# Entry
Amino acid sequence: MHCTEHRLRLCLAMGLMPLLLVACGSTSSTSAPSPASTPAAAAPPLPAAAPTVPAAPPAVAAPARTPIATARRQPLGPPLAARNWNEFRAQAANRLVQAHPDSTYMGPVAEPLLAIPVLEIELNADGSVRRVQVLRHPRQAKDTTQLAIDAVQRAAPYGSMTLLPRPWKWVEVFLFNDDRRFKPRELDH
# Structure
């Protein structure tokens, strides 16, 4: 019920915003032609604007939530070139978490886990994903395998691979909890 009331207030606020803008625009245009008619014309829009002010806080509260959502979708910074495979695996795991703050967790690993898909990721020289091979499918919650593959694709590129020996492959284990949030095994040490 609370969500419905909030949506109703938000819809009302969004619906009244154009009226407020029209009212503001009409008062400035009526005040220019005749100063005598300005107080009479300005009086009706002010009461109309007063009911809009209480509806404005939900509209202001909604944009406060949208920057968080857009911050989650912002592109990641440029990846660094790793000097060795241990450094690369740590950077790749951190990049996976940074790219998916709403679908990862960093706390202790709960037991039992929902699913543990294991992926082998092969990269191109520029760090883009060449191929993802599933080494282990979970017995239950098989959809988590695709969630892990999508997470790997969205976090790419992983940085220049030219400093590392070929083949440019690494294995990542995804630890999924009951909320279908994952933690790269590399960060669980």
Notes: The longest strand covers residues 129-136. The first helix runs from residue 2 to 31.
